[in-house]
Amino acid sequence: MRATLETKLAPWTGIAFVVFAAAGFLTTPGDFLDDPESLADLYEDELGLFLGGAQMFALAGVCLLWFSSTVAAAIVANGAGDRLAGIARAGGTAATVLLLGGAAIMAVGAPIAHEEGQISADNASALFNAGAALAFGAMPVGAGVLVAATSLASLRGGSFLPPSLEWAGLV
Hints:
Elements: H1 5-27, H2 36-45, H3 47-77, H4 82-116, H5 121-158, H6 163-168
């Protein structure tokens, strides 16, 4: 059986997700629960960084969706069952939605501040912190579901992960 280009490139989408997500985290200015006045200043001054970070997160989301579908297909192909494949796919989808939603909420304040010349400290704080809570706090829960389902599927008999990774995914 010949491996298709899609099959050969599929694992790289997981690596691309990590690279794009890291670029998004590093590009997006500000920190969770920063002083509201400093967040308002960031929104007014750093339009490019906020939009660039959101674009990196968007690319990361596409890669994560592709990767989670690839993992789900591998779970089914290795005989570990449709249920765990569905759970893995759902975890990847949830993580993607939370990442994209959080990034969009965080980034939306920058064009508002740029267009109007200012944004209130309360609005800046609410947008940034709500987005950060979704993208950085809730998204890992979805990713954890993907990892746990994959580990369980491999332990259940698929054996497509090394034994050390099977158990590490459950911890």
